[in-house]
Design goal:
The protein is an all-beta fold. Helix content is 1%, strand content 56%. It starts with 11 loop residues before the first strand and ends with a strand.
């Protein structure tokens, strides 16, 4: 029997679940950020406990900051601006407070994701001109103190030249594995009018030279110009390879990413499955905590769950009508 856990306002455009704090954040077309909490421990019913006006433009995406850095949310608005809000104690009362803005007249922020490492917190922003900016938090207790660490474009060949790019959307997913010897890495793909930018690339931070390098491209030669709608990096629990999902108009490709680089520093890749059978575009993908089940949703209005069997054959496990 299906049961409603929260009632969202009309005009809600996006949402994000905080697994650690069991909280839900939603954004609205009127620029409001709403936070939902459970009134009773263990309850599956959530009510709105805070509602904040973030911006005059509607919110199109909300992302929680990793919980070890407090309760905070990043909001991308329809005009391409990005706002960070955090919950703080003032006068013995918990309240949400604006702590940082990222705004540009020329380009829009299309996606934002956070990478929590052993020693720092990093934030990746993808912009509408195809550029990527990586910021690092200088003080783990001050979410307003960010420093630009790097800026580059999502291309394998750094000397590629092309005209001004127009990107319609972007998708970023950090490597969720954490460890003392784990390098910072994320995968990024664009939906743009510039073929060189589109294909999903895996970027890894080279500590020795203090720079970000593309270590893999998740696209077959004939598919490198395909526009990417969503990417998702699975949690790795003991596999000798990483698993990354990439959604294009051709379907959802499941890639295996090797862990041992070649002499050029590139990681081996293998496309092991192409999931299809749904209509329209895939907007969002999320792996479960074990990295075994992939949830997808898109223009067809269904939430679908995908798994592979013991022989490595992928299949649709379930489908739910989200309407």
């Amino acid at each position: 029997m299906e049961k409603s856990v929260a009632t969202l306002d009309n005009g809600t455009t996006c949402s994000a679940w905080n697994y650690c704090g069991q909280r839900l954040a939603t954004g609205s077309v009127d620029g409001s950020l709403s936070i939902f909490d459970s009134r009773d421990p263990g309850s599956s019913s959530f009510t709105c406990t805070s509602k904040i006006r973030v911006h005059e433009a509607g919110i199109v995406k909300v992302v929680w900051v990793p919980p070890e850095h407090g309760d905070a949310v990043a909001c991308i608005c329809g005009d391409g601006s990005l706002f960070l809000w955090e919950e703080v104690v003032e006068d013995s009362v918990l309240q949400w407070k604006h702590c940082k803005s990222f705004q540009s007249k020329a380009n829009k922020v299309l996606d934002v994701q956070f990478g929590a490492l052993c020693t720092s917190l990093k934030m990746v922003l993808a912009y509408s001109d195809g550029h990527v900016k990586v910021y690092e938090l200088l003080d783990p207790l001050e979410l307003k103190n960010w420093q630009l660490q790097a800026e580059f474009q999502n291309v394998i060949d750094s000397v590629s030249t092309f005209g001004r790019a127009m990107c319609f959307s972007a998708s970023i997913s950090w490597n969720p594995k954490r460890g003392e010897n784990q390098e910072s890495s994320f995968v990024l793909g664009f939906n743009s009018d510039t073929p060189q930018l589109n294909s999903s690339k895996v970027w890894e931070f080279d500590e020795a030279h203090q720079r970000w390098l593309p270590v893999a491209e998740l696209a077959l030669p004939a598919d490198k110009s395909d526009q990417v709608f969503a990417v998702a990096w699975a949690t790795n629990i003991g596999r000798p390879y990483e698993v990354i999902a990439v959604a294009t108009h051709k379907g959802i490709a499941i890639w295996h990413l090797g862990l041992n680089p070649d002499l050029d520093g590139r990681l081996p890749v293998e496309k092991v499955a192409l999931l299809s059978g749904f209509e329209g575009e895939v907007w969002q993908m999320e792996w479960d905590m074990s990295g075994m089940t992939l949830a997808t949703t898109g223009t067809d209005g269904f939430v679908r769950l995908w798994q592979s069997n013991l022989n490595g054959v992928w299949h649709e496990q379930a489908a739910f009508d989200s309407s």
